[in-house]
Amino acid sequence: MDTVLEPLMNRPDLPQLVATLNEQMQRERESREAFLRDLTPDMKAEFIGGERVLHSPARAEHIRVSRRLLMMITSHVMNHDLGEVFFEKALVHLTRNDYEPDILFFGREKAAKITPDQMLFPAPDFIVEVLSDSTENRDRGIKFVDYASHGVAEYWIVDAEEKSVEQYLIDNGKYELSQKLKSGTIASVVVTSCEIPIAAIFDDEAHRTTLKSPPKA
Question: What is the CATH number of the domain that holds 80?
């Protein structure tokens, strides 16, 4: 029996607890349906733990870091026909929560199933989140757990202030830190042969050099 459920099974008020939980989950489902109905293309919003989360505009450096990484990953994926890359306006629709990751990659198998008018996306194969003050707790907390539990095989957490990249790989349904880098080159496990110099994520000149002479697959 699940270690979380075991202590509850012996409680005499279990039926009342279950009824309360069902009522709460029904309210959450209704709130989520309203959230999805109300979404507009210009909104940056997520639905997490029964609540709408509206995001404020990002800082310039956050945008620059996200853009550099998006360009390098997208270029590699397109050049080698590996699948498809999306960015923050793609809403990932998981069992309970809806997220808009900064960068997400679908391998060929999942990418082939994406339709032109699709607005809700399944769990991708690879996700990048660039930290901000308002999102760090979620990126390292609920998203960290939720992405892993839905089989996102690789997760990068990028810190623009620290100029570092943490690479997490899934192991038995949980993420394990593979490496944290501030220099050198990071190689994706999921995006085949995608190797990115850390400097190219945080510096324009290094980024331009990498785009002109990308690592050969």
Answer: 3.90.1570.10
Q: What is the DSSP letter of 99?
A: E
The pTM of this model reads 0.91
Is 138 contained in some domain? Answer: yes
Q: Do 98 and 37 share a domain, yes or no?
A: no
Count other C-beta atoms under 10 Å from residue 159's C-beta.
Answer: 17
> CB burial class (10 A; 0-12, 13-18, 19+) of residue 210?
buried
Is 1 contained in some domain? no
178's tokens: 């593979």
Question: Average pLDDT for consecutive 10-residue bins of the chain (217 residues)?
Answer: 76 89 93 94 90 90 96 96 94 97 97 96 98 93 97 98 97 96 98 97 95 70
Element (H, E) at 84: strand 83-87
List phi, psi (to 5°) of 59.
Answer: -70, 155
Separation CA 96–CA 48 (nearest Å) = 8
Cβ atoms of residues 178 and 170 within 8 Å: no
Which pLDDT value is given to residue 41?
81
Domain total of the chain = 2
pLDDT at 88: 83
Q: Which domain holds residue 30?
A: 6-53
- For residue 168, the 8-state DSSP code is E
